[in-house]
Amino acid sequence: MSGATLDRPHVFVPAEEGAAGPPLLLLHGTGGDERDLLPLRDHLSPGAAVLSPRGTVMEGPMPRFFRRLREGVFDEDDLRARTDELADFVIAASAEHGIARGSFVAVGFSNGANIASALLLRRPEVLAGAVLLAAMVPFADVPEGPDLAGRRVVVSNGERDPMATAWHTGTLVAQLRGRGADVTELPHAGGHQLDGSLLPQVAALLR
Q1: Side by side, which strands form the sheet with 127-133?
Q2: What is the pLDDT tens value at each position of the chain, 207 positions in all?
Q3: Is 161 annotated in the active site?
Q4: 197 closest CA partner among 206, 188, 205
Q5: Nearest to 119 by CA among 80, 156, 150
Q6: What single DSSP character describes residue 127?
Q7: Catalytic residue (choose from 110, 156, 168, 188)
Q8: Which candidate in 52, 94, 161, 168 is catalytic?
């Protein structure tokens, strides 16, 4: 499989006529697939085009977007390679489906949020912004890259999340703001989960 082609499992949903919101790049969590986050389209950007790829790294029976050495410890060499592979896939899909390059907003949960953050920091040309749900810190050291000015990022982590802790949240937000991103934090009282009650606020920020 080459990341510069569309040769990976994915779903593409074209935009409906009159849709005003941004196209969404949906990135599932560990063990999920390309259909897991499709319902978020109606909540966050109704009628928008959606691109939802499946992670190509297997951890036992569970798809992921990149390898980890153990829980909470990422294989950063693999993360860099998989980030570039995913970026090239998004560029190819944008050209195939007539989506303006760089207009996708990534919406990622857990492992998907982590590679979305990596895309912003390493290959920001493919994204207009991101919604990071249960997000950790992808890189110990922020990679050099262009300024993220003009890109809106929402970080929504649980206050009782044992994996995406307050340290992860604060460090990730600082990394993104340090590169110029417009970051909004939307914490919730739960754990490693998506809090559906916050989706209207996220949708308002995307508009």
Answers
A1: 10-13, 50-53, 24-27, 104-109, 127-133, 152-156, 182-185
A2: 344 678 899 999 999 999 989 999 999 999 999 999 999 999 999 999 999 999 999 999 999 999 999 888 899 999 999 999 999 999 999 999 999 999 999 999 999 999 999 999 999 999 999 999 999 999 998 888 889 999 999 999 999 999 999 999 999 999 999 999 999 999 999 999 999 999 999 999 998
A3: yes
A4: 188
A5: 80
A6: E
A7: 110
A8: 161
Alpha carbons 182 and 203: distance in angstroms, whole number: 15
* Catalytic annotation present for 45: no
Element of type H or E holding 81: helix 76-97
The torsion angles phi and psi of 114, rounded to 5 degrees, stand at: -70, -40
DSSP secondary structure letter of residue 22 = P
Domains and their CATH numbers in the chain: 10-206 (3.40.50.1820)
